[in-house]
Every structure is written in C-alpha cells, then in structure tokens.
Amino acid sequence: MTRSVALVPGLLAAGVLMPAVTVGAQEPVTLASRAESVPPVDLNGDEIGVDELSRGQTGYGLSVFAGSEPARFGVEVVGVIREMDPGTSYIVARLSGNGLEESGVVAGMSGSPVYIDDRLAGAVAYSWSFTSEALALITPIAAMRELSALEAGEAAGESLGLAAPGALRPFDRSVQQMLEPPDDVAAAVREIVAEQLGSLVAPADWGGRGGAQIAALGFGDPVRRMLAAAPAGRADTAGMPDLSAGSAVAGVLIDGDLKLAVGGTVTRVEDGEVLAMGHPYLGVGPLRVPMATVEVIGVVPRLNSSMRLSNIGSVVGAFDQDRFAGLRGRVGAEARTIPMTIQVETPDGDSRRFDLRLADLPRMLPSLVGIPTMQALESASYGGGESGLDMTGTLRLRGHEDVPLQQTFDGSGPGTSAAFYLLALVGALVNSDYEDVEIEGVELTLSQSHGVRTVEIERAQASSRRVHAGDTVDVVFDLRRHRGNRYQETLPVTIPEDRRPGRYYLFVGDGVSIDAARLQLEPSKASSLADQLDMLRSFQPKSRLAALGVVPARGLIVEGRPMPRLPASVRSIWQASSLQGEPRALNLAIVNEQGRDLDIPLDGLFRLDLEILPGTAP
C-alpha cells in the first residue's frame, strides 16, 4: 500500500500492520487522499488538537505489554509533521517506559492512545525500524473521530472485471492457473498470498509448527512477518476486562482450530463505538471483520522492530470501517464468517478434523482458504517430502449450486499444490465479472498416501485409424508408474454417428490436460456467472483418462460463443460487422468428449489422427 508516509525511508507501522513500506529516497510516491469530504471535527474538552501542541510537552500513553490490563508509558512531543497526508498532520513523539527505551516501538502498539495535559491527542500509528530510540508518529484524534460520521457498510467484492490491454481478465487468469500451474508452485503461492495479504505485513518472525511450512515455501520477510505477528493462540477469557482505551484488540481473519488475526490497540471507546489502530487495516472502506479481545503474553525485543506475543480472546463485536486514520468498530455488532472444515486422512490410517471460521473479505478469501489447507496437512501429517494427496469437497454458494472439489496432487509438497489449486479456484469465484459470489461454506477432505503415485502416459495409439461414423475405437495407453513397471490401459471411444467423412482428431490424456486443451481449442468467454460456474464444475481430475473428439471447422468464435459450421457468406457478414465484438477464426471444433475415472493420477497428452470413411461399418 503506497501512502505519503513512505516519504520517510524505512517507516514501519507500530502495530502488526505495515501500511508504509521501505522505499528509496528517489522512488516516486503516490499520495492517497481522503475517501470523502468530511467537515472538521469539533474536539471534546477531553481531546487536544495538533495546533495546541509544541516541542517538549510531555504526557503519557496506554498500551498492553503483558496480560490484558493497559499500562502507562511516557510520551514527549518532538514536533508535528504537517500535511503529510492531504489535510492531515502527524505528531512526532518520543516514547519511554515499560522497556521501550530498549525495545523501541512495539508491533501491536498501533492505536495506543496518547494524552497530553490529560487530554487525548491521538494514537500511536507508525515507527521507524532499526532506530536507537522509540520514536513514533501519532495519528491525531481529530482524524480518527471522522470515522464516527461514516455509515456502516458491507465489504465489496474485489474484482471489477478489468485488466490491462492484452492481459487475461482475473477470472480467466485464475482458470489458467488451475489448469496450467507453474513449475514453481511454491513461488506462485508466495506471490498470490503476498498480493492479497501484503498490506498486513508485520515486524516479527513466524514461530511454532507453522514456521516449518512457511520456511519450506520460502516466504519472504513481508508475508512471514505478517503471519507471525498475528495472535496465534486462544486466550483464557475468564476475567478479561471489557475493551477500553489502551486495550489490546484484534481483527480476526481465521478463527477456530487455526488462528490468524491482526492485532493493535484501542484508542477510544465511547457508547460502544471503538476507534483503533490509527492507520488502515486494508484501506478498503466498509468491511465486516470480527473484533476480539487479546491477551498479551509478553514483548519480544528485536533489532529491526520488536513484537508482542499474543492470544486471541473472545469476539466482542465487529469492525465496520477501515480508513486511512484507523478502524472503527462497535461492541456487540456481528460480522459474517464463512465456516470451513478440513478433514485430513493420514497415510497411517488416522483422521483429524479442523473447524475454522473465515472472515468475509473477498480480497483475501483465496488466501484464507489456501493457508489453512497447507497448515492442516502439516499439523495432522506432514507437508514436505514426496507423497500423494486426493482432495475432495464442496464450495457452497448462496443462490447457486455447489461447486465440487475433486483433484489429485502428487510429488514433493502436494499440500502446496492443493493450496495453489484452491487459491486459483476461489480466486476465479470472487473475480467473477458478473456478480458478487457469496461463498457460504467450504468442506474439504485431504487423503494423503506415502510416495508418488503419478503414472506417466508414454504413448497412446488407436486400434484403427480408418473408421466409420458410429464405430467404437479402442485407445490403448502405454503407462509407466513412478519408479515402477509399465502397463496398459484401454479407453473405448465412440465416433459420433452424425459425423461426415473426413479427418477426425482425438486428443487423449489426463483430465486436467484435456480441460486445458479444450479451452485452447475453443477459448470461449462465459457471458454470465452461470456460464462461469458451469465451466468450473466441468473440470476433471488428473485421475480421469479422457478423450476429446475434434473435427476441422470453418467457423468463428463470436462474443465467446463457438460457431463451428457457418456458411462462407455468413462468416463474411460476421467478420465485417463492427457490432459483434471481434470474431476469431475457429479452425477446430469439439464434437465429443468421453472418459473414465481411474484410482491414480495421470500425466500426459497426445493427439491421434483418424479418418472417417464414407458409408457405414461393414
């Protein structure tokens, strides 16, 4: 997220967010203006404006350094940086006490209220890494109070259906990722997660069992830091006080048997309204994220930026606004969450179930589904090394039929491949060009087996290359097991009875390769969400032995619709018309699709050239 605070090199968020990233001094900076015009705020008598502040004034702040009770720390005003954002200034202050002289500003302090002359001046929001003292930028309370005037709303979908000229639309790009994953899947997962969760980076390192998985993926510092600083456990909520100024608070992304949240500090609570953080969470405006109490285990001093170790407490409300000056929430409000269950069947015959609740954030949802998939496999069994993985399940959609989940993954780290597949599939749904897709639930089963099972298709041949319409041809596949023996499988393929004499092509191979070939042969564009859902439901697993029947065509693809048998005169009219988009030539048309399921994943794609003879079979 590029903000004008990036004018200061090395500026980091003081909480577990890092909305400003380190930039070079010559890097151009894009200024982010306010989302809407808001009249100036009249401060209450217990609040102080930046025009009343001067160098050397002292006061105190409130934050949690251990447990759940806020503690005081010292504050000395260094000065005011004016108009750092359009219409907004920031207070520069030196913090002290509670070990801040040694630790510097601690990740999680974002939102800590600062009082000068016993009046609220604002919230600790940003700090610098690798500093020799605890210097912080403080968001003025006047900027945060503007959040109170905003109406609550629901989070909007992420995709606008737009793409750079010549680039794939988001939905089409996600489909391509499903069918043609890159060679380095782990790098692709890193890239997607960084894109979706990159604004939630935090200055800490991931620990515990999840660290091995993240390290194995090779996550760079931003994503690893984001995952770590999130409260990662469940607090004992008995006796925890209600939220008040200085309380630790979290926006919960994943709750249940896996925790992922972004924590900070409450700036002010007034009539059930909560102002917190002092800087953006995602900067998306209206949103609905569960708001939870936090228990701080303690502070971990670090050279670049210290951090709080924390546990999530009870959900006590919901955040509903996310702006440049911070978060607004309300105690007692509810935020919709998406239930997700993951059942892991291990190679040793054990079974373990994980129950989760995901924040309803369309922008992040692919990653919020993909990350637990890797973590669940790592926790219940193992995520590295060579193994096989069968994935089955369901994506439940509001107002539409379910999208089934059925795919197989084999090789080194199949859990990462499964996560990438889910990232792409959920990404396709939330990036629909036609409607906001509301996912009501995710049900997932991962069945793991020792060793690699993938069978390579080394050759395919037809029992006859000269056939009649209506004939059944046996396609014989020469297969080789991974580090094992060779054997054969046969797929009977029927030539459609209505085919005319001439060339007839068979594309044969595993289900995923056949689906990719199908979309390349007829790259039709869906014209509705129903079309997109039908496409996603039609995709086959790698364990399916499949065949496409293809014939030469003299047609066009018009507005995404294949028209394979157009007369020459009609083709000329369509191609000359400027009202029908940009028709493309269609040289091959799919006329038949057949296949059968095996119990092992396959890999390979071949083309067989046949000739349909005149007349009927003897």
In terms of topology, how is this protein built?
Layout: E1 11-13, E2 58-63, E3 71-85, E4 88-96, H1 100-103, E5 113-116, E6 119-128, E7 135-140, H2 141-145, H3 170-179, H4 185-197, H5 209-217, H6 221-229, E8 248-256, E9 260-270, E10 273-276, E11 285-300, E12 307-323, E13 326-331, E14 337-345, E15 351-359, H7 365-380, E16 386-397, E17 403-412, H8 414-430, E18 439-450, E19 455-462, E20 466-467, E21 472-481, E22 486-494, E23 502-510, H9 511-521, H10 529-538, E24 544-558, E25 561-563, H11 568-576, E26 584-597, E27 602-603, E28 605-612
Parallel strand pairs: 14-18, 19-27, 20-28
Antiparallel strand pairs: 1-6, 2-3, 2-5, 3-4, 4-7, 5-6, 6-7, 8-9, 8-11, 8-15, 9-10, 10-13, 11-12, 12-13, 14-15, 16-17, 16-18, 19-21, 21-22, 23-24, 23-28, 24-25, 24-26
Helix pairs in contact: 3-8, 4-8, 7-8
Task: Tell me what you see in this structure.
- With 618 residues, the chain is α+β, with helices and mostly antiparallel strands.
- The protein folds into four domains: 4-145, Thrombin, subunit H; 170-197 and 342-450, no CATH class; 226-337, no CATH class; 455-612, no CATH class.
- Helix content is 18%, strand content 40%.
- It has eleven helices and 28 strands.
- A six-stranded antiparallel barrel has the order 2-3-4-7-6-5. The protein has a six-stranded antiparallel beta barrel with strand order 8-9-10-13-12-11. Strands 20, 23, 24, 25, 26 and 28 form a six-stranded mixed sheet that branches.
- A hairpin with a 4-residue loop joins strand 21 and strand 22.
- The protein is elongated and about 105 Å long.
- The model is unreliable at 1-39, 157-165 and 201-232 (pLDDT under 50).
